[in-house]
Amino acid sequence: MAEKILILGGTSEAHALAEKLVAEGHYVTLSLAGRTEKPATSAATIHIGGFGGAQGLSAFLRKGRFTRLVDATHPYAYRISENADQAAELTTIPLQRLDRPPWRKRLGDNWTEFDTHEHARDALPAGATVFLALGSTHIAAFAQRADVRFLIRMVDPPGEKVVLPRFHQIITGKPQVTPEGESDLFARSGVTHLVCRNSGGDAGYAKIEAARRINLPVFMINRRRSGKPAR
Ligand SMILES: NC(=O)c1ccc[n+]([C@@H]2O[C@H](COP(=O)([O-])OP(=O)(O)OC[C@H]3O[C@@H](n4cnc5c(N)ncnc54)[C@H](OP(=O)(O)O)[C@@H]3O)[C@@H](O)[C@H]2O)c1
User: Fold this and answer.
1) Measuring from each residue's beta carbon to the nearest atom of ligand 1, which residues come in under 6 Å?
2) Which H helix or E strand runs over 96?
3) Which of 77, 123, 174, 228 is most buried (CB neighbours < 10 A)?
4) Which residues lie across from 221 on neighbouring strands?
């Protein structure tokens, strides 16, 4: 029987799931936070922007008569997942969560793991050239390191509100698809350290493989120990 499904997205997995569920004949709304200027097109109905917390999400689910909620958000998007948990309880609408396992360290990986962006920032040596592969909301944490040069990769140019480090260069666009593409970029730019999150999945793995090949130190910001609750 056709269901009415709300997918909380912002990931390639969410897009793929939306396409699949639409093809199966379900009524699907794919919800995006609105962070990227030109999100990929979808066969699903697109909803852009927040709901106003767990209460707002509950009201949206009830008003739209949704029968299922799917949390397919990024593993580091904690707040929206907490909202989804609460909304599922408030509305009793079944919630399903897509799990994206973290990358596992392999032979040759030169990782130092940190629990916070601030701990990673403080451990960077003076004079380093650092590639920041982080969302725009986490760049400000590195702004106080005026003794380090940063290359910052973002999908869209940073808005005026983003606090940037003193010595920085912005690279707009998505990650290179191949490890060769990433290692060429690191070598060309004289990168000495890579700072990133353990997002898991295929899309961002080329940089991890590239770092392994050229023995580039990776400062890996771990997921919260509690993580997102399993569903
Ligand atoms: N965090 C990352 O590193 C990362 C990386 C790639 C993609 N993303 C995607 O980018 C989005 C924002 O990430 P974040 O870390 O800023 O999230 P977050 O901290 O968990 O969420 C902040 C607020 O943004 C709104 N929001 C988040 N995801 C939404 C969605 N899919 N649909 C509608 N509203 C949403 C919610 O506002 P209201 O409370 O008003 O509803 C939420 O309270 C997520 O959808 C995530 O999947 C995040």
Assistant:
1) 8-11, 31-33, 35, 50-53, 56-57, 73-74, 76-80, 83, 135
2) strand 95-97
3) 228
4) 114, 197
The CA-CA-CA angle for residues 129, 134, 136, to 5°, reads 110
Distance CA 145, CA 87 (A): 40
Indicate which atom in ligand 1 lies nearest the CA of residue 31: 32
* Strand partners for 30: 7, 46
pTM of the model as a whole: 0.91
Nearest atom of ligand 1 to the alpha carbon of 134: 3
Task: Check residue 231 and give its pLDDT.
Answer: 73
Q: Which long-range contacts (CB under 8 A, 24 or more apart) does 49-55 make?
A: 51/83, 53/83, 54/82, 54/83, 54/86, 54/87, 54/90, 55/90
Beta bridge partners of 32: 48
Hey, what amino acid is at 16? Answer: A
Which residues of the chain are modeled with pLDDT < 50? none
Separation of alpha carbons 208 and 202, rounded Å: 10
Instruction: Name the CA radius of gyration of the chain, rounded.
Output: 19
Q: First-to-last CA distance in the chain? A: 22
